[in-house]
Write a structure and sequence with these properties.
It holds the Pfam family ParE_toxin. The chain is α+β, with helices and mostly antiparallel strands. It has one domain: RelE-like (YaeB-like fold, 2-Layer Sandwich), CATH 3.30.2310. Helix content is 24%, strand content 31%. A 4-stranded mixed beta sheet has the order 1-4-3-2. A hairpin with a 4-residue loop joins β2 and β3. The termini are far apart.
């Protein structure tokens, strides 16, 4: 089953700030995620339990998404560099 991607209201501004090369890398990964979004190793814990991450290790950037199975939707929540002191 293919899921539909939706963006959180704050996601678009963060997405547009990324270099196009980084956005292209995320697009490739998202193309795989829309087919199978529940990837156990990418599940987040704590305040973001129920969400998943996609990481670009070399770039130091990650994208956080939430799966809404009842609506067949993947909600893109946030994207950016993660500092150790920041929750997400």
């Amino acid at each position: 089953m293919t899921y539909k991607l939706l963006r959180h209201k704050d996601f678009t501004a963060e997405w547009e700030k990324l270099p196009s090369a980084i956005r292209d890398q995320f697009k490739k990964k998202l193309a795989k995620v829309i087919e199978q979004p529940h990837i156990p190793k990418n599940m987040l814990k704590g305040d973001l339990a129920g969400c998943y991450k996609i990481k670009l290790l070399k770039a130091g950037v990650r994208l956080v998404y939430q799966v809404k199975d009842d609506q067949v939707v993947i909600l893109l929540i946030t994207v950016g560099k993660r500092a150790d002191s920041i929750v997400w």
